[in-house]
Design brief:
The structure holds 2 protein chains of 2 kinds. Chain A is mainly α. Chain A is 73% helix and 0% strand. Chain A is globular, with a radius of gyration of 18 Å. The relative contact order of chain A is 0.09. By secondary structure, chain B is an alpha+beta fold. Chain B has 13 helices and 12 strands. In chain B, strands 1, 2, 3, 4, 5, 6, 7, 8, 9, 10, 11 and 12 form a 12-stranded antiparallel β-sheet that branches. The radius of gyration of chain B is 42 Å and the shape is elongated. The chains are: A mainly alpha, B alpha+beta. The interface between A and B is large, with 51 and 36 residues.
């Protein structure tokens, strides 16, 4: 089923088209939810709520930009809404405490790099994790993040800086990245580009 | 610069890693989404469940009744068989055991007097307990052929009691034997003194008494017979009481209709809604201010049928099926051309929609209606009354399914009405309280009339919508209740 067929069918409330759309995008979207959520169950709840919004608001999609990007934005906002109901985002963690925070090596799985990185992101405190996800991965600006999370833009910046330092530290300590190697690697790719 | 470059690289690394990561959700997530998107498709499965439940209940009740009927029938047949058996036996022999066997009811009842009748009747279980013992053939019991004895020697007295080895309770046994002795002795003396002959064989064959009397004895016999008959009739009635069908006795079917006036309460629930003066959302409030909504009450209707079951003298439960039609009217101004506006949602973004109606009060009227199916479950409490007239108060909780409706929702800037039926909540919950007077007619039907207030507990619209609307109705309920 093509994307156009899926869209047309979903707009007609056709269950088969809705399922096809869900099957196509749910694995990536669950991964998005998983980065924000505490557990897989929470992530699935977010995914469910997000897809209900997607199906009920699909008529608003104007074919401007990729459908996946539109779906992803709804999923991200759904995750933020769910988190906002439960937690304040002004929460910060002192770096001193943060150092002690990531000493639990056994918490980091070692399956593949992508999963390892995601699991390391999930180990961050909620405020750090959310800002880092939104800024570094989802591409929102600090101003947008501030509006989304009801926090100051400066708070978003400081949270992000701390989150990044903490995450780097975790990744290096767990040998997931070699700071110098990966710096060179990306430096080369930047030169090529 | 190096730091900036490094920062970008790190972010790129994170983004690539995160994008490579995928997870497959469990299937139940899709089922939950599907059920949420297609709530109407749950009704077939619910209907099947209800059908199965009803069928199981029906089969259970039917089997229970058939078992009871079968038991009653068997008991009745057994009884008639014993009666026949008694008749057959008494045609042939006049047995001592017949006197005390419960199957020889008439003879046993012969011992009943007005004094001991109630005692005997109250000892029903003892009679039945004895019956089993008595029905076992006892080869030790010597049968005395009274016909032969009376035919051969009128002076001989059948020694009935001595031959009985029956282990019935002494009171009954003694009473029977004493009475038998007395009767036979009296008959014998009378027949000798007055020289009145009696046919012993006929007396054995007699329905009521084994001894048939003539002359002055007939009066005595008549009195005795009346007591016997009365006792026997009472006992028979006691043992063969018609089975009571509790459902028929306590159940009733009620049909009703409730014309009412429908209003709404309206409030905002979302931060995304602009800071309008929500206190201005008052139904039936006339003003030309564009931010004030002008709604008028309209005729609403409720029609339904319920099964009632009386659980005590004052309380009865009820449940049934009901159809609701809700309606109210908004005075609006029709727009010359559609205007682009948005619907306030609780989520991050608002619906962008076009509208044909301004909330500014005008000549145009739009009806906001819903058609609902509800399952009212509740109870009535009798406050006062007599056989003819009663006063009740009652209440129900009504899970409701909205079959269809027209939804004109308020725009985020509160200047427009937008037709958006997708925002209608499909499943809702109503509650109703009522008080009514019921009049019982001569044919058993009961007419009920009284005021009712019904309130919708959940908003008419889905929770995503930034406003909450709750419909309430005030009406007069008229109903007819007929017993099963």
């Amino acid at each position: 089923m093509t994307e156009e067929q899926m869209l047309a069918g979903t707009l007609r409330n056709n269950a088969a088209a809705q399922e096809a759309l869900y099957d196509r995008y749910s694995p990536r979207m669950l991964a998005v939810c998983y980065r924000f959520a505490k557990s897989r169950e929470d992530a699935e709840d977010m995914l469910q709520e997000g897809f209900i919004k997607i199906f009920t608001q699909l008529h608003q999609y104007r074919n401007e930009g990729a459908l996946e990007g539109w779906i992803r934005r709804i999923i991200v906002h759904t995750c933020i809404n769910v988190l906002k109901k439960n937690k304040k985002f002004s929460e910060t963690v002192d770096l001193i405490h943060a150092n002690a925070f990531h000493t639990k090596e056994d918490l980091i799985p070692s399956i593949i790099q992508a999963k390892q990185v995601v699991e390391c992101i999930r180990m961050l405190p909620l405020g750090y994790k959310t800002v880092l996800n939104l800024y570094a991965i989802e591409g929102y600006s600090h101003k947008e993040i501030g509006q989304m999370l009801d926090i100051e833009e400066s708070t978003s910046r400081s949270q992000y800086t701390r989150a990044k330092v903490m995450l780097e530290d975790i990744l290096v300590k767990k040998n997931i990245i070699d700071k110098s190697q990966y710096k060179n690697q990306y430096a080369k790719s930047n030169i090529k580009n | 610069m190096e730091e900036n470059n490094y920062r970008d690289e790190f972010e790129l690394f994170l983004k690539e890693s995160a994008d490579d990561f995928k997870m497959v959700p469990s299937r139940k997530v899709w089922y939950s989404i599907y059920n949420n998107l297609h709530p109407d498709r749950r009704w077939p499965s619910m209907a099947v469940c209800l059908f199965i439940l009803t069928a199981v209940l029906y089969i259970g009740i039917a089997n229970n009744n058939s078992i009871s009927n079968a038991a009653r029938k068997a008991s009745s047949e057994n009884f008639s068989y014993n009666q026949n058996e008694k008749n057959i036996e008494t045609n042939i022999t006049f047995s001592a055991s017949d006197y005390i066997k419960p199957k020889g009811k008439k003879l046993q009842q012969f011992s009943l007097t007005n004094d001991n009748k109630e005692n005997i009747l109250s000892g029903e279980s003892r009679f039945f307990a004895d019956e089993e013992t008595a029905l076992i053939p006892n080869s030790n019991i010597s049968t005395v052929n009274v016909a032969e004895k009376f035919a051969t020697t009128n002076t001989s007295t059948p020694n009935i009691n001595t031959s009985v080895k029956y282990d019935a309770p002494k009171t009954i046994q003694q009473k029977v034997s004493i009475l038998n002795d007395q009767l036979i002795a009296e008959h014998k003396e009378k027949s000798l003194s007055e020289n009145i002959a009696f046919t012993t064989l006929e007396s054995v064959n007699a329905e009521i008494s084994p001894i048939k009397l003539y002359g002055t004895e007939a009066v005595l016999q008549k009195n005795e017979l009346s007591i016997i008959e009365k006792s026997w009739t009472e006992d028979y009635a006691f043992r063969n009481k018609p089975a009571v069908n509790k459902l028929k006795q306590n159940g009733a079917l009620s049909y009703y209709i409730t014309p009412s006036s429908g209003y709404r309460s309206f409030s905002k629930t979302s931060k995304s809604v602009s800071n309008a003066n929500t206190s201005s959302f008052v139904a039936a409030r006339a003003t030309n201010d564009a931010t004030v909504l002008l709604d008028n009450a309209a005729l609403n209707l409720e029609v339904g049928a319920t099964l009632q079951y009386k659980v005590s003298k004052k309380v009865r439960l009820r449940g049934g099926l009901q159809g609701n039609y809700t309606n109210y009217v908004s005075n609006v101004t029709a727009l010359g051309h559609p205007s682009q506006t948005s619907i306030a949602l609780n989520s991050y973004n608002n619906y962008i929609r076009s509208s044909n109606y301004s909330t500014k009060a005008g000549n145009e009227k739009i009806n906001k209606t819903t058609l609902q199916i509800a399952l009212p479950l509740g109870a009535d409490f009798k406050i006062a009354g007599n056989e003819k007239i009663n006063w009740f108060v009652g209440g129900t909780l009504q899970p409701t399914y909205v079959v269809s409706g027209s939804a004109f929702v308020l725009s985020a800037d509160e200047k427009y009405y937008i037709s958006e039926t997708a925002l209608l909540r499909k499943l809702n919950l109503n509650t109703a309280i009522e008080t009514f007077i019921s009049f019982k007619s001569s044919n058993g039907a009961v007419l009920s009339v009284g005021p009712q207030f019904r309130y919708q507990l959940l908003s008419t619209y889905r929770k995503e919508y930034g406003y909450s609307e709750k419909i309430y109705n005030v009406g007069v309920k008229v109903g007819v209740t007929t017993p099963f």
